[in-house]
Amino acid sequence: MKRILSIAAMLLIGLVSQAQAAAIVGKAAPSFELKDVDGKTVQLQSYRGKYVVLEWTNFQCPFVGKHYGSGNMQALQKKYTEKGVVWLSICSSAPGKQGYMTGSEAKELIGEREASPTRFLLDANGKVGHAYGAKTTPHMFVIDPKGTVVYAGAIDDKPSTDQDDVKTARNFVLTALDEAMAGKPVTASSTQPYGCSVKY
Question: Which domains does the chain have, with CATH numbers?
Fold first, then answer.
């Protein structure tokens, strides 16, 4: 009986830890260290003092396909990296699951899509995805220069796979960045993400 209670307690602690392991708007962004597609180590902490966008992605997901097929994601990446924003695309698909890529495969797909994130990071064990509570692809986070999460959620307000919807959507990431960078409070700091589930 003691052993059963002990196991139950451990499971409960694990569930509590998982519930707490998520990026929360207004709180410090969880620190992390990941390898990029070239095998180089990237630390979130090294970008302190800059705005950082985290984009969870899976190139096999039709919702991600909507934003890359329309050129929306690439346009955002280009616009804001030119303004000094650090854009980190993260793939948390596990080996054998949809969207999993090696570094060389990722580089090829990034080139095909003409994507221009600052770095593309591989999180095959899902550790960073779980730390942020990343649920979907895409799932977006904006971190301010102090290291605080100022936005978490969907890329926009049209949860579809239709590329035409991009034109009329309210882009939450664009709005959050523009407001934060202008010294204003982010009006929609937390929204419900939509897309394919992250394939942990």
Answer: 23-197 (3.40.30.10)
